[in-house]
Amino acid sequence: MTNNRLREGKLEIETLQTWDKKHYLHPWAELSDGKTDFGVLNKAKGIYLYDKKGKQYIDGPGGMWCISVGYGRNEIAEAVSNQLNKLPYTSPWSSTTEPSTLLAKKISDKTPGDLNNVFFSTCGSTAVDTAIRFVHFYFNIKKKPNKKVIISREKAYHGSTYLSASVSGKERDKRYLDTEEKLVKFLPDVNPYIRPDGTSTDEWCDRKVHDLQNCINLVGAENIGAFIAEPILASGGVIIPPSGYHQKTREICRENEILYISDEVVTGFGRLGHWFSSKDVFGIQPDIITCAKGLTSGYIPMGATIISDQLVNQITDSDQKDVLFSNGYTYSGHPAAAAAANKTMDIIEDEKILEHVQEVSPHFQSRLSDLGKKFEIIGDARGIGLLGCLEGDFGKDCSETKKLSIDHEFGKKIDAAAERRGLLVRPLINMCVFSPPLIISKKEIDIMFDILEDSLYEVQNEMLK
Ligand code: PLP
């Protein structure tokens, strides 16, 4: 009998690329015939990825902002494997497991203030969905059913489910997809880089805070449930709101009984040198924090929504205390994902990775800002912690369509030049963003920025020809 089963391990790169183009719809999928030939990656160790031909690349974006403790961590693989052998799954509706309960306790110990109630989900998008659904649930119980509108910001990214995409503010992603427009109001871009000439960052901050107040005045606080905000707008291009913005907007929300959701899907679990950045970096105490990505260092999908005691207690003290929060996923608190997260947290603690990030970040940031000074084609080089972005400066005076094509060209050219030299970057139209694994050493930071510098010389020479 012949065995025609397709088997992993023996397939040629060309075959994989052909099937990839024919059958695999990737995120932000290109549907045309001329689809990209994706590199086929095969293995990884530390901060490095290797393709099927054995070529080594530094992982500049850290996967998708998620690889924190680096690749090739046997201890995470073993923890997951042991858990799968012992108990791969049990229903979170009717039972609990040691790893998931332990994880809820460990996360509660790391969150600021009274954020002690952990709802597990499958990724960042479902963590955000859960947060918004909880806001609606909370105000329904509080007999304020009109408080439903969510305030978000232009350039925010909160996910790709219908609800989380509805509160995401990247316009270019929405041109052909529907979202729930009545649910959300967007505040204008907070990026200090776009402030008009002559405007100080303090004035910019006041204007941005005023945007929030203005929106509340227009919509009415009685109709607004929550403000959702990434501490740093990561996918929007590592946008760092002006100093003082977080605290002032937090205060306005408190005054207007608008819940504050801090989306720490990128900034949580060490990216800025702290478990969470809301309080430790930006001095605010949110009502809800969402997280994912670094929670398991990208080894297994998992997200979490962490809700304050204050909110939960108001429900349990109400006359509707027995009402169920009917939201959940088959894989909420999945034991294998929880095992990966517990081990990730142990590694972060045992290897003092938060302290390491605090130590190497100034070097990372100074190499990044040097690029901004050196290259004419770079308009802005910004970052914080181990997050960075280079924004190209082109085509300000052309039409929107022409500008978009120049912008794409810039991102693609840097991507190609860096890839040839052994560095993966993440092009985002006219920007490249970086979030390497948190274990990156100073020496590796230098290698990464040396490659970038070389690549930028090449791209600049080509584009300014
Ligand atoms: N929130 C933020 C801030 C994100 O950056 C992302 C993804 O990049 C998400 C939510 C959605 O996470 P996921 O892709 O895991 O659903």
Hetero groups bound? pyridoxal-5'-phosphate
**Structural class of the secondary structure composition?**
alpha/beta
> What's the Cα radius of gyration?
23 Å
Strand order of the largest sheet: 4-10-9-8-7-5-6
Count the strands?
15
Topology pattern, helix = H, strand = E: HEEEHHHEHEHEHEHEHEEHHHEEHEEEH
Parts with pLDDT < 50 across at least 5 consecutive residues: none
What's the main sheet like?
Answer: 7 strands, mixed
Mean pLDDT across all amino acids? 95
Query: Looking at the structure, what is the overall shape?
Result: globular
Description:
By secondary structure, the protein is of the alpha/beta class. Helix content is 40%, strand content 15%. It is built from 14 helices and 15 strands. The protein has helices at 13-23, 62-65, 74-86, 98-110, 124-141, 162-166, 201-219, 245-255, 277-280, 309-316, 335-350, 353-374, 400-420, 442-463, and strands at 41-45, 48-51, 56-59, 115-121, 149-153, 184-187, 224-229, 259-263, 288-291, 303-308, 378-384, 387-392, 423-424, 426-428, 431-434. The chain has a seven-stranded mixed β-sheet, with helices on both faces. A four-stranded mixed β-sheet has the order 1-2-3-13. It is globular, with a radius of gyration of 23 Å.
Supply database-style keywords.
465 residues; alpha/beta; seven-stranded mixed β-sheet; four-stranded mixed β-sheet; 14 helices; 15 strands; binds pyridoxal-5'-phosphate
